[in-house]
Amino acid sequence: MTETDNGTTMKEDYAAMVEISNEGARELGFDDVGTMWRARYDLPPAEFADETDRLWGQVKPLYDELQCHVRAKLNEQYGDEVVPLDQPIRADLLGNMWAQSWGNVYDLVAPGDADPGFDLTELLVSDGYDAKKMVEAGEGFFSSLGFNPLPDTFWERSQFTKPADREVVCHASAWDLDGADDIRIKMCIKINSDDFRTVHHELGHNYYQRAYKNQSPIFQGGANGGFHEAIGDMVSLSITPDYLKTIGLLDDVPDASKDVGLLMSQALEKIAFMPFSAYSWINGAGRCSPES
């Protein structure tokens, strides 16, 4: 069965789920589920949608240039049949199952003179990192900020690697099971730069969950619907060359001449993710400027 066939078999059930969900949202006083979701961000739903559009409008020109550049480079690699220059980029070519970040195609799309000065994946492999050591590095980051070590149950109950005896959802997630100290992550960690950042991001959720455990239940949650993700991303953005030197992965911090490669790597991770998270359907099919 192909993915298209799989989607076809789900079509009627999915439509029914949407109708049932909208019915439930209306019973709670919302127009539909979308309105209910948009009500979680300290603004009336319509104002939140307008603010999202406004902020995205500021970033979109940079995204358009990035998308056009990546599409052109992938076209050079795979040809017109696989990557038409007037169509969206096929998700399976972007190195991420959900096409939500494009960092795994860095080697194919980076400018020829762009060299970040190091390859984090190579550093992790050469230093003997395994899944547990990746998580220990994340714990060490938070310990350096003064947070208490993770509880023993975290190490006993979390999933760090894909089980050999069953299928699991490998999409990374963080969990607070008891509103106290039973915090866990669920990942299928690979030894690469993407998962190293993801570990730090997911632990950001866990430490935030633990920080409000003594609050009353009404305050045991994010400040708004997006605050948890902001915490996680703030932490993952802290994985700088200086940090890598501090934890012994880098001997020397590359000089400013390496910034273009570093910024391209960040753009493939963060700029590419922004429309995915806000709209989940943008992958520019429009015309690119000659310079792109």
User: What portion of residues is helical?
Assistant: 40-55%
Strand tally: 2
| Class of secondary structure makeup | mainly alpha
Mean pLDDT: 89
Question: What is the element string, with H for helices and E for strands?
Answer: HHHHHHHEEHHHHH
Rg calc: 21 Å
CATH topology of the largest domain: Collagenase (Catalytic Domain)
Would you mind describing this structure in some detail?
It is a single chain. The protein is mostly helical and 292 residues long. It has 3 domains: 1-39; 41-111 and 254-292, no CATH class; 120-248, Collagenase (Catalytic Domain) (3-Layer(aba) Sandwich), CATH 3.40.390. The protein is built from 12 helices and 2 strands, in the order αααααααββααααα. A two-stranded antiparallel ribbon has the order 1-2. Helix 6 packs across helix 8 (193-211) and helix 8 (193-211) packs across helix 9. It starts with a helix and ends in a 14-residue tail after the last helix. The mean pLDDT is 89.
